[in-house]
Amino acid sequence: MDPTPLKFPPAKLSQRSLEVILENQTPYGSFIASPNFPTYRYCWFRDGSFIAYVMNLVGKHESAARFHNWAATVVNERAIVVQRARAKAQRDELLTSVDYLHTRYSPDGSEVIGEEWPNFQMDGFGTWLWALGEHLTLTGKPLPRAWERAAGLVADYLTELWQHPCYDCWEEYPDKMHPHTLAAIYGGLKAHSRFTAYDHRETMQAIAAFVRKWSSTEGHFVKFIGSNMVDASLLGLATPYRLVEPDDPLMLPTVSHIEQSLAQGGGVHRYSTDSYYGGGEWVLLAGWLGWYYTEVGRYDQAKAMLEWMERQADENGRLPEQVPANLNDPNNYEPWVKRWGPSAKPLLWSHAMYLLLRHYLSL
Questions:
Q1: Active-site annotation holds for 281
Q2: What is the SS3 string spanning 1-68?
């Protein structure tokens, strides 16, 4: 049991979470990752897509639609980038920094200038296609033509590039291939096949076969090909991308390893050697593991994750990215604080995952 005292009433945290998200949705429709953390004052496709999905779950469909319109505009304005990336990939040429879609953008959708950042990531674009499919299903509204064009560009981009190493969802290990990224692409293409005339079965089958052949060891999935570690992002292979089912013979031991090595302190670490801000426990990952638990009927464990999340809210009802508890590498905490200040708070993705878990627990 987490001994952290409650600082904010749990009964009010849902409303507060919704306020935090809506207050930080820009006039353009984008969601700021964290308004008080300078490095995160941008919009990520990954974070924003999950947030938009949660806005649909709680009935804020107009908010979700504004995000999807922003995302589609960003992609459509970069059609030439997609075309160039596909052409280079087909010729087996090396991609450079101008040959791929970036992972984060300024609130108005413009490129972030003057900052070095790991930009070649594909999981966010797969997640966007998945979230767009969920939006269409949950609202029952037709697909706008501009969104359809953008989705087609993204699907073509992912189909051509999925075999390329890229940064993982934590913006690390750019020379590796990551099961979570592949699962996000799989889930995105599956959704795209559902709401358009595209048929991605061949690519999806190739991705699934590749993951099963190369992305596991000793009976469980691994952080990246060639590793033997687990990573909490592996939850995505089942929940929500459905590359495998939640009770798959490889997924169940993967979750057991996550529980044993990453979830012993109440929250959930990213991976065992994580040293970012000392490698603390991530609030959004507690929500993600709780989400998985709801899918396999482990509701008591899901509620325990929800209660842990509630204890991380400060007196203003703000949820952080991570908490400095049970650190993997305590010596690396203060250096990050000196470099960038305290860990991001509020993090919109944390608030979204709290709302998501409450939704799936029917609370």
A1: no
A2: CCCCCCCCCHHHHHHHHHHHHHHCECCCCCECCCCCCHHHCCEEHHHHHHHHHHHHHCCCHHHHHHHH
Architecture of 10-360 per CATH?
Answer: Alpha/alpha barrel (1.50)
For the record, the structure tokens of 115 come out as 């900052």
The CA distance from 224 to 173, in Å, is: 9
Per-residue pLDDT of the chain (363 residues; tens, 9 = 90+): 567 789 999 999 999 999 999 999 999 999 999 999 999 999 999 999 999 999 999 999 999 999 999 999 999 999 999 999 999 999 999 888 888 999 999 999 999 887 778 899 999 999 999 999 999 999 999 999 999 999 999 999 999 999 999 999 999 999 999 999 999 999 999 999 999 999 999 999 999 999 999 999 999 999 999 999 999 999 999 999 999 999 999 999 999 999 999 999 999 999 999 999 999 999 999 999 999 999 999 999 999 999 999 999 999 999 999 999 899 999 999 999 999 999 999 999 999 999 999 999 999
Q: Which of 47, 134, 168, 231 is catalytic?
A: 168
Exactly one of 171, 172, 259, 329 is catalytic; which is it? 171
Q: pTM for this one?
A: 0.97
- Annotated catalytic, 168? yes
Is 19 catalytic? The answer is no
